[in-house]
């Protein structure tokens, strides 16, 4: 039920043992080096001629393998293989197809939920299969403590089931408080399903998880990587954050579960996050995403049947009667999809901008296409504003962010550092002040290509979009605009860190 990185340790030890073995055979370090270089060239050739990943990632891996002997090859074996080569069993595929067929049929019957005609939502529907749905009551939560308390309140009101997924769940005071509430709801007879990413939540203690199971909670790690085999999934994680209560209310956004997300941390004076509370038909879309993840690695047949047979409990259609009339479209995607749903949805939204683009992202590491799209928008007269942390939570991500600033400024894009004593973790975007997105998606290569992500697209006129626009304005008041003059005076040390971070970013 837990992952302790057994696979990574196994591959590393095996790699070192093979080095010693071949050194013993060749009896010469020079011959061993030539042999390793030959193996590296073989992997590099495969990467060039047969791998289907994007050119930026290919180039970065080639440089890593050829310029960093041994370590570059080891890193590629651990993290670099093509995610779309992964194979799933016929039972896994059948379970997913059963759930997908039901959800497609279910939403097709709810014509009263279809949102207003919108060119963009129609394009995203053809891309993803998920339509914009009307009849939602949405609430943008710009404070971690506020979002956390709303989640607790909704869970207390649960009568049938509570579904939770977190990329990072910590067994600190915050995690224990929520876990205690979940155990109380399970004791009341409420079905509780708790899922966490096995790498993101690596520090969850065994004993703590056993307490949840003993209390009647169904606990499941997402995509374990503790097999003593050469796995292809270590670097492809589920980054979603979802809470669904009785199929009527859902929470998504950037906030994981831990003390720091409520600003209970000494490292930052404040942790700025953004969550979205959804009540109405779009909450059922989030429910579908959770069940999609819950069943993804099941090896038993017909595991989707209980949710379909009791659809009135998991997909209650009366939810629309209590909701408002906001239009919301749920887009989700992951590394095993043939198309890059999240990436393409973001590019479509940005490409339709006519006056303004506002982006807040804690991790800004764009691929060439997304960088070119933003630069082209700015040069065509659209006001583009990007807000990133003024203080990073990790050196690699922080300097990865700043490594792109010069190219942004050259195109006329306004870049802002959020409060340098706080941390900006919210992930949201606003187009023309009429369309907004909130979700787990960072504006980076990892979210676009390697992670499972979920985002809500909200279409105006909408009070929630207005709230998000106002939140961006408030965040700007706590931010400092970056200038080319400031960039010109940065230290040689920072320049080196930025270059190195920019190099490694496409690998991770």
From TrEMBL:
It is a multi-pass membrane protein. GO terms for molecular function: cardiolipin synthase activity. The chain crosses the membrane at residues 7-26, 32-50, 59-79. Its EC number is 2.7.8.-. Residues 234-261, 420-447 form the PLD phosphodiesterase domain. GO terms for cellular component: plasma membrane. One of its GO terms (biological process) is cardiolipin biosynthetic process. It is found in: Cell membrane. Keywords: Cell membrane, Lipid biosynthesis, Lipid metabolism, Membrane, Phospholipid biosynthesis, Phospholipid metabolism, Repeat, Transferase, Transmembrane, Transmembrane helix. InterPro entries: Cardiolipin_synthase (IPR022924), CLS_N (IPR027379), PLD-like_dom (IPR025202), PLipase_D/transphosphatidylase (IPR001736). The keyword Cell membrane applies. It comes from the Bacteria. The keyword Transport does not apply. This is Cardiolipin synthase. It comes from Enterococcus aquimarinus. The lineage of its organism: Bacteria, Bacillati, Bacillota, Bacilli, Lactobacillales.
């Amino acid at each position: 039920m837990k992952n302790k990185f057994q696979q990574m340790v196994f591959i590393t030890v095996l790699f070192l043992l093979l080095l010693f073995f071949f050194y013993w055979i060749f009896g010469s370090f020079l011959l061993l080096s030539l042999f390793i270089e030959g193996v590296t060239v073989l992997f590099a050739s495969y990467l060039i001629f047969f791998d289907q990943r994007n050119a930026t990632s290919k180039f970065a891996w080639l440089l890593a393998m050829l310029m960093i002997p041994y370590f570059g090859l080891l890193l590629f074996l651990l993290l670099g293989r093509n995610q779309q080569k992964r194979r799933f069993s016929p039972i896994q595929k059948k379970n997913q197809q059963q759930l997908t067929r039901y959800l497609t049929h279910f939403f097709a019957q709810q014509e009263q939920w279809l949102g207003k005609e919108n060119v963009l939502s129609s394009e995203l529907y053809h891309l993803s299969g998920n339509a914009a749905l009307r009849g939602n009551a949405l609430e943008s939560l710009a404070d971690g403590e506020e979002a956390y308390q709303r989640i607790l309140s909704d869970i207390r009101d649960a009568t049938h089931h509570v579904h939770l997924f977190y990329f990072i769940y910590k067994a600190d005071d915050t995690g224990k408080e929520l876990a205690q509430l979940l155990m109380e709801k399970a004791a009341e007879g409420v079905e509780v399903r708790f899922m966490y990413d096995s790498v993101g939540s690596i520090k969850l203690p065994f004993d703590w998880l056993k307490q949840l199971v003993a209390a009647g909670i169904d606990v499941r790690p997402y995509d374990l990587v503790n097999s003593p085999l050469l796995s292809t999934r270590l670097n492809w994680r589920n980054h979603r954050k979802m809470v669904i209560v009785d199929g009527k209310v859902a929470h998504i956004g950037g906030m994981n579960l831990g003390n720091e997300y409520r600003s209970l941390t000494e490292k930052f004076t404040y942790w700025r996050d953004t969550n979205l509370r959804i009540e109405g038909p779009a909450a059922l879309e989030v429910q579908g995403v959770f069940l999609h993840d819950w069943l993804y690695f099941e090896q038993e047949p017909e595991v989707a049947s209980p949710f379909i047979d009791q659809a009135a409990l998991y997909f209650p259609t009366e939810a629309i009667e209590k909701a408002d009339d906001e239009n919301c479209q749920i887009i989700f995607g992951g590394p095993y999809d043939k198309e890059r749903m999240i990436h393409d949805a973001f590019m479509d939204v940005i490409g339709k901008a006519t006056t303004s683009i506002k982006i807040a992202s804690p991790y800004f590491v764009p691929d060439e296409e997304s960088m070119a799209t933003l630069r082209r928008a700015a040069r065509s007269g659209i006001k583009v504003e990007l807000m990133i942390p003024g203080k990073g939570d990790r050196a690699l991500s922080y300097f990865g962010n700043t490594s792109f600033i010069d190219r942004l400024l050259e195109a006329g894009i306004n870049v802002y550092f959020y409060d340098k004593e706080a941390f900006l973790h919210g992930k949201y975007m606003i187009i023309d002040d009429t369309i907004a997105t909130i979700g787990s998606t960072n504006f980076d290569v990892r979210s676009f290509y390697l992670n499972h992500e979920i985002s809500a697209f909200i279409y105006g006129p909408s009070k929630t979009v207005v709230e998000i626009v106002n939140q961006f304005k408030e965040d700007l008041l706590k931010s400092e605009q970056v200038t080319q003059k400031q960039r010109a005076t940065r230290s040689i040390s920072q320049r080196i860190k930025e270059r190195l971070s920019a190099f490694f970013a496409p690998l991770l």
